[in-house]
Design goal:
alpha/beta, five-stranded parallel β-sheet
Length: 282
Amino acid sequence: MTGTLVLAGTPIGDIADAPPRLAEELAGADVVAAEDTRRLRRLTQALGVTPKGRVVSYFEGNESARTPELVQELLGGARVLLVTDAGMPSVSDPGYRLVAAAVEQDIRVTAVPGPSAVLTALALSGLPVDRFCFEGFLPRKAGERLSRLREVAGERRTLVYFEAPHRLDDTLAAMAEVFGADRRAAVCRELTKTYEEVRRGPLAELARWAAEGVRGEITVVVEGAPETGPEELDAEELVRRVRVREEAGERRKEAIAAVAAQAGLPKRVVFDAVVAAKRATG
């Protein structure tokens, strides 16, 4: 008989949000794999639980090496509990590799549902929640961040992101540039904690607010692209918008992609307009 892999959600702020089954699983698991064993110790103390099983670390730095070891434990019949620092394992946290490896070996995988910063922020944002997509963390480098945002500029579903506080102002400014300054958004800070704050408004306004400095765990929710259809722009305006972006330092390919996304047009339409304008000017 193979064992069972249990993914357990942990509180994102308020310890009282811990699901009752979490304490049971912590007490009874044969192996507890934790993103941070020190934070796990604080969690178990708060819950009044003493794990009976072996406690091991499982974080980004050792995830690849430790996964085979945990799979062997599971194949031997162990009940392995995976917990991360906050929220659900695998959601922008360690866990995916272990789940995939367990599934490949036909090992049972189950979960203890718990708090989620993604769903909590989405619910509090005041933005549409019927359709959404989670984009995780954006790239740290400015160019890569802009490219990633351009990929979803025409996305009509509500977008959810995680972001570090010291990069929040740059990220919001980039969103305002790509999605439009007036696109509605919500910055959710320190969810379920003492200083919880949800700041709502247009992206440009939120970027100015964040420039003053923001602390804490951050989740950003952004309204999807409007469903009004392609923006009616003539070729001259398309070329002008591309030129403005090029003068700001963007490469032509990236500028064309961004203008096309904002206008709701195929990139080829914008490209052809740029080529025609170049030929007309000699």
